[in-house]
Amino acid sequence: MFNLQEKSVDSIPDAAITQESFKIVVETKMSDWFYSEQLMRHLNSFGDEKYKVMITLAHELMAEDKKNIFEQQLKEYNSAQSKPVIHINTTFEGIVNAIQEVIDDRDYEMQEVLDDYLNYCYNDGLIAVSDSWKFMRMQLAGTTLDFNVSQDIYYDNAERGFRAHDYLSLYKNKSVRAVGKISARITAVDTDNGMQYEVEFGELTEERKQKIADAIIDGVQHGYDIKSSKHRYFFVEKFHETDFKKITPRAPMGTRVFDLTQILETEQLPETEDIAELLKTKTWS
Which helix (H) or strand (E) is 284 found in, with range? Predict the structure, then answer.
């Protein structure tokens, strides 16, 4: 809390900065294995803090019956407390969603932390990928847009983490210009023994090897060296032209993930070509 000209006992300082006491207690499980007995014991971890929060965290939300039992016990506990405990049940993916909603596109350090967190969660199976069908990842294309669209390919540094997604879109000049459904994801790097490939999804064909080679040449023409460092190549079935406009002033400085079911207000997505047409009628900020 930041106060100006706050009156104290016998003086008025120019400003006062106060941090209210708080404590967050986290109980993490690999699945919905929460037990109210254990959670109630955790309440002893709190002292006289003004704000008390208990977070139950897993890769899936608590079953409603378990959650109801614990929250009823917590309600009875809080009735005898002057400063109640707030319970928040969330998932590893829920934390990502919450951060992405408030993080600034230009906050590169926080974006890197989020990427590392995503990599950790996916590698350890903490985030389910069953809902990847509804997510569209937006990438900045700029000078490479024409090549990306003509060859139905996009590349990015392999060290960068990302949320599982089935759709890839490309941004340039205040709008998402193309969208495609991902058909393969392959990493490649030049080594002393030649190009080394790793298939993450889809198939490694001679045609895709050639497109990777063409992407490396195109990158050089634009000042990018993507041959000597490991890059991830996203192949789409076809990039479809769209015009999904950003209506706020500042241009994004990095990636963005959209939930297409929310953007298009539907529970079932149409064909990619139709998604591209519908996005022309939508805007984002």
Answer: strand 283-284
Written as six digits, the tokens of 197 are: 């490939």
Render pLDDT for 163-211 as a digit per residue (tens, 0 to 9): 789 999 999 999 999 999 999 999 999 999 999 999 999 999 999 999 9
Q: Do residues 88 and 53 touch, judged by C-beta distance below 8 A?
A: yes
Cβ–Cβ under 8 Å, residues 158 and 190: no
Is the Cα torsion angle 80, 29, 60, 93 positive or negative in sign? positive
**Residues 252-280 pLDDT 10s:** 877 888 999 999 999 999 999 999 999 99
Q: Over the stretch 135-152, which tens digit does the pLDDT of each residue have?
A: 999 999 989 999 999 999
Token digits of residue 224: 């990018």
Q: Which two tokens stand for residue 138?
A: 């937006």
Contact yes or no for 116/263 (Cβ under 8 A): no
The identity of residue 160, as a single letter, is R
d(CA 187, CA 232): 4
What is the Cα–Cα distance from 206 to 11, expressed in whole angstroms? Answer: 78
Burial label, 193 (beta-carbon count in 10 A; 0-12, 13-18, 19+): exposed
Tokens representing 276?
Answer: 């591209």
Q: What is the mean pLDDT of the chain?
A: 88
Neighbouring-strand partners of residue 54: 25, 87
159-187: buried (b, 16+ CB within 10 Å) or exposed (e) per residue?
Answer: ebbbbbbbbbbbbbeebbbbbbbbbbbbb
Whether 119 shows a pLDDT value over 80: the answer reads: no
